[in-house]
Design goal:
Elements (H helix, E strand, L loop, with lengths): L1 H30 L3 H34 L9 H29 L6 H7 L2 H15 L3
Helix pairs in contact: 1-2, 1-3, 1-4, 2-3, 3-5
Length: about 140
């Protein structure tokens, strides 16, 4: 089980790294007016989104594997339900990034760089909440 837990943590860290950086690319795309720079940023965003998706899959699989070991079962494990709910929100955020990327690729972005700066804070809040739930286990 410790190997599974270690691999889960490694892939979660890598997944979050991508989710921290991808919206920063969106900030730059929303501000960019040069076609060459926009093309380069779109290429970077596409590659990062694909790679981040590849990293998310083992993070989720290893997390589910931990459940098969009985991790978090029994009374006093309400924190795990809250964590899993936040993971569902995180997966939704990941998919929202893909949707936003498609809008940029079509030239259909209507949001400002300021909106993307705020959007970029969502994974920070999710990570903070998830880590507190896992470490402190408040309920």
């Amino acid at each position: 089980m410790l190997w599974v837990k270690a691999l889960h943590i490694v892939f979660v860290i890598a997944w979050f790294a991508g989710l921290f950086y991808l919206p920063r690319i969106f900030v730059n795309l929303a501000m960019e007016t040069d076609t060459t720079s926009t093309t380069r940023l779109l290429l970077m965003a596409r590659k990062l989104y694909r790679f981040t998706t590849i990293l998310a899959l083992p993070a989720v699989v290893f997390g589910l594997a931990l459940l098969s070991y009985g991790f978090g079962q029994g009374p006093g494990n309400g924190w795990l339900h809250a964590k899993l709910a936040l993971v569902v929100v995180l997966i939704g955020y990941h998919h929202a990034c893909g949707s936003l990327l498609k809008k940029f690729e079509r030239g259909a972005n209507k949001r400002s760089h300021t909106w993307y700066r705020w959007f970029n804070e969502v994974p920070v809040v999710l990570l903070l909440a998830i880590v507190i739930l896992v470490v402190v286990k408040p309920f």
